[in-house]
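This section describes the prediction task in plain terms. A model, or a person checking by hand, is given the sequence of a single protein chain and must write out its three-dimensional structure as a string of tokens. No templates, partner chains or ligands are provided. The sample shown here is typical of the held-out split.
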Amino acid sequence: MKNLAMLALVATGISFASCNNETKTKGETPGEHLDHTLETVDSTTSAIEDHTHDHISDAEAKVNQAKADLDAAVKKGDKEAQESAQKALDEAKSAWEKTKNAVSNTAEKVEHGVSKAAEKTGNALERAADKTGQAIDKAVDATGKAANKTGEAIDKKVDQTKKNLEN
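The expected answer:
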């Protein structure tokens, strides 16, 4: 049970860390940040699935062993062993239910964390796209102004050349 509680705590910590992780490596684009986040989520999810599968298998094995012990006690007709085995079976089933609930809660928290991380990364991509669009607009405006100035300078030169030719 301690391991299961630790698993839930670690998974919760990872999901919250992914939600609040706003740092990024120098020069990392929002797309690269998203890729990095998804890789981290995939590896963490795999580790959690493996650990969870082990806990589920252990809980299932304990339930099966408790059932076998109860069946053996019933066959022997040993009332004391039967009561003890029934108690062990009830405890194993309770642990099994707690494990399933913890796995479900952990999965929901991880999913929530992934959704938040994807949302934040999407927002960062939108902001980056907006800034890029604004920079392009400024560059186009500056280029247009420079082209107009160059055109005006050429017009003046042409006018001056015409005047010089006329004289």
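For orientation: DSSP finds three helices and no strands in the chain.
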